[in-house]
């Protein structure tokens, strides 16, 4: 409801509060490890708390899996692979995946609330993006389960066996779906390790797997910290490691896996360039820039965190962009009007602060949104740096927060050179009215995903992944099956 249609001093409309109800989450007080189809206490009986970053409140306690628990989970996945799943026909595997997809839809409101409480992202995004896309991935890969011989990987593609899957905190449920759906469709069994700060939606998903009647041990979900992830990587009973997270940890994992026969895919960090040419429609460009960097508080591996704007329109784009930044509603993630939610952890907030301090120290011009921040919880106001040089840390390093670095260019060649001047290569955006120019630029960009006149568009049919220090392997689409087949 609009409380006051007059514009506020900041230029934003005032909205009344529209909170979603936290009681929809139905959280248990404490969760065990999901092994062999049931929740079991960890061997050590050690638990840790997961908090709501918007309030600091404890949401639930979850189990900390140690090496003995990882052992149990891998043994369970191996048993399920050998006794059940590897001999379950694709048509039957498909039915389970369809059932999981439908149950995610049925429990979508609950899942969205759980995700927002545990992660801090706006309910609007978990409701409209994370949860529907998670269901869409299960639907999509259900369709492949009985058609693997037509996927282009030979007449009799075989699964790998037991997949160890490690995911980050920025899209907890969606990353779980990206990992589990193709693995199960291809006939593998799984041990999934969610991030320490966002374990809850994966545990609700475990309930959904039970509801779907998925055979025991086909998916095991073990909560814990970095030591749990490391134990999974080291385990000799795992045939494949699929990791999404930081380049730093990805590198460590690659070293550990190098001397083994384990397969590996890595989806790592990024420093996406969003390239705006002078002929691009400016209103759409502004929305695209905003979506590119402020979606999910900028905790997005493929975020358009470097804006490259053609010099002839740079002043106008920047002026309009800053006006739009002031209109972003920052605050209670459970409010349906919120655009930018809480920062997921103190560690992440400190990293954002450190890098933005460097931005000022190295001479960039800082603009901070005039929004008011809540007293409690972890927050960072949307921030734009102009006068950024390519050598600045804020132009080179992944900030993983609501911070945009603006650089300019004069010619398409210069735009390409600057966009490619990064150790990463995950995603880029190109904004132009000329299709020929967009294609010319896209062909020269070194990135796994290139969006034209849009940004942060995801679809299960489309492969996603990086080059260079953004990792290797693809998730989504037919390509996503390859990571789980012996090809
Ligand atoms: P992270 O620290 O690398 O953690 C990712 C996962 O790995 C977490 O589950 C973490 O567990 C676990 N882990 C940590 N140390 C480990 C180790 N030594 N061995 C095995 N597992 C270990 O990354 P993050 O900070 O959570 O996530 C942010 C990063 O993910 C960003 O760099 C972002 O770009 C990247 N990301 C990439 C994609 C993509 O598709 N390319 C998608 C989303 C995010 P704990 O949480 O328990 O420590
Ligand atoms: Mg949490």
Describe the overall structure:
- It contains 15 helices and 20 strands.
- The strands form five sheets. It has a seven-stranded mixed sheet, sandwiched between helices.
- Helix 3 (108-119) packs antiparallel against helix 6, helix 4 packs parallel to helix 5 (172-185) and helix 9 crosses helix 10.
- The termini are far apart.
- With 487 residues, it is of the alpha/beta class.
- The chain binds NADP nicotinamide-adenine-dinucleotide phosphate (NAP) and magnesium ion.
- The site of NADP nicotinamide-adenine-dinucleotide phosphate has 30 residues, from helix 7 and helix 8.
Identify the notable features of this structure and list them briefly.
binds NADP nicotinamide-adenine-dinucleotide phosphate, 487 residues, alpha/beta, single chain, 38% helix, binds magnesium ion, six-stranded mixed sheet, 15 helices
At a glance:
By secondary structure, the chain is of the alpha/beta class.
List the helices and strands and how they pair.
Elements: E1 2-4, E2 14-15, E3 30-31, E4 33-35, E5 38-40, E6 47-51, E7 58-63, H1 67-83, H2 90-106, H3 108-119, H4 123-144, E8 162-166, H5 172-185, E9 189-193, H6 200-211, E10 219-221, H7 226-234, E11 240-244, H8 247-258, E12 263-267, E13 273-276, H9 282-294, E14 306-310, H10 311-326, H11 346-361, E15 365-368, E16 383-386, H12 393-396, E17 403-409, H13 412-420, E18 427-431, H14 435-444, E19 449-452, E20 471-472, H15 479-482
Parallel strand pairs: 3-7, 8-9, 8-11, 9-10, 11-12, 13-14, 13-18, 14-17, 16-17, 18-19
Antiparallel strand pairs: 1-2, 4-5, 6-7, 12-20, 15-16
Helix pairs in contact: 1-7, 2-4, 3-4, 3-6, 4-5, 9-10
